[in-house]
Every structure is written in C-alpha cells, then in structure tokens.
Amino acid sequence: MRDPLRFWIVVFMIGTSFSLEPSCPICSKYDFVEQLLERVIRNEFALKDALDKITATHSKVVDTLKKIDEKEMTLNESIKSLRISIEWAYLDEIMTLTR
C-alpha cells in the first residue's frame, strides 16, 4: 500500500512542478508594458488637449491686448484734443478779459 501512495505522491509532485501558470492579465510579463503604453497615450492626448486650450487662450489674450492698445490710442487722442480745446478756451477767455 505504501508503494502506490508514494507513486501517486511522486506523480502529483512532478505534475505540479511542470504545470503551467494560468494565463491571466496579472500574470502576463507584457501586461505592465501594455498598461504603461496605454497611460502614456492617454497622457499624450490630455497634453494635446491642454496645449490646444492654451493656444486658444493665448490667441484670445493677444486679441484683447490689441484691442486695449487701440482703445488706449483713441483715449490718448481724445485727451490731447480736450487739452487743445481747453487751452483754446483759456486763451479766448484771457483775450476777452484783456480787451
């Protein structure tokens, strides 16, 4: 009775030592590389979206700065014309007082 028991124990040990590991994603040696590449691709898309948003915002800022410069020039011209008008009014007042 001991011999058949030893035989089956040896067969069981040999069978388990040569058995294959189950094929599952956790056990795959390329799974980590695959997950890493997927993460890199997701990050690349996210960065591209962020770059597009930054570019759009930059163009809006540049347009707004141009508008501000135009308004500033218009305001400076208005101030200059007001100063000239005030100076002429002041000179007219002085001329009428001196007559």
Short description:
This protein is mainly α and 99 residues long. The chain has helices spanning 2-17, 31-98.
Give an account of the 3D structure.
- By secondary structure, the chain is mainly alpha-helical.
- It has two helices and no strands.
- The protein is rod-shaped.
- Keywords: Signal.
Task: Write the topology of this structure.
Elements: H1 2-17, H2 31-98
Label this structure with key terms.
about 100 residues; single chain; about 85% helix
Question: How many strands, what sense, and barrel or not for the largest sheet?
Answer: none
> What is the number of helical segments per DSSP (H or I, 4+ residues)?
2
Counting helices, strands and paired strands, the structural category is: mainly alpha
End-to-end separation: 146 Å
Q: Which assembly state applies to the chains in this document?
A: single chain
Number of domains: 1
Keywords: Signal
Signal peptide: 1-19
